[in-house]
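Exercise: predict the fold of this chain.
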Amino acid sequence: MASTTPDFGATHWRKSSYSNGGGGLCLEVADGHPGLVPVRDSKMPDSPTLVFRATAWAPFITAVTAGEPAA
């Protein structure tokens, strides 16, 4: 049976523009996975990757940039 888990081994990660440079709050996201948004902690790159559907990620980012509280 084929795995349905995406392989992020060769993924190019980019640090979020909202991450700070002081060693904390370091979030990385990966492009190139249609319909999905892989997210990881850049301080712990071997930790599990969280994967969100793009349809859920877009409204989350809109809310965060607008300063809305988390639901």
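Check your answer against the key: The chain has a mean pLDDT of 81.
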